[in-house]
Amino acid sequence: MTQALRFAIIQLCAMMMAALMVSVFKWPALHWAILVALLSLFGALRWHDGKWWRFIHLAFPFLLLLGFHFSIDPLWYLAALLLCWMIFGGVLRNRVPLYLSNARALERLAEQVPKGARLLDLGAGTGTVLAWFVHHRPDVQVDGIEFSWLPWLLGRIRLANSKAGWRHGDAFAADLALYDVVYAYLSPEPMSLLWTKAQKEMRPGSLLISNSFDIPNVPPERVCNIGDWKGSRLLVWKI
Q1: What domains does the chain contain, in order, with CATH numbers?
Q2: Which residues 6+ apart lie within 8 Å of 126 measured at CB?
Q3: pTM score
């Protein structure tokens, strides 16, 4: 069951239970929202993986109440949905949100990339990694692939006058055999799938580098601390 479907089921059950209690005790709408938030929070604690779902469950009934109170045009909801899909489409496909690599991470990454290598950034966001390498490591040939439309469009504009390769598509459809280094800043969910794909496609001696996220049961060859406020690390596997 997907996390989005769990969210819908938990919210629906919480709303039905809260509506029943409100009808019995004649509570106002605010009490309904509070009750829905508490019930759905309990559901999130038991059935959701990420902690961020708890905050979404807590906020959702109050946002819904505000929407009814201010009589917001439904077209605004449609616009917000389309905007979220354009930015976070990768979450629905591979459970990969939009993460952007910071300058410290890029400096540490550059230390791991051999001279003259060919590098692929999987889930390349707005092209931050590629733009940095074009400017600081012109000896490296860089390509990137991004699924979400708005980040991809921003990356295309950003990299328009560079030699970086920039594609729209599913990161897991890319051919990894062409690259000396594959860099991924994804999420915990697809890392096992990425490792299986890397073992099948990447050449012996090539490097798979993950920002922050481990591959379950596969210790990295080395770990490079980035030194940022998040305590991020680069994890390096040699194929």
Answers
A1: 3-72 (no CATH), 103-238 (3.40.50.150)
A2: 100, 146, 151, 154, 155, 158
A3: 0.73
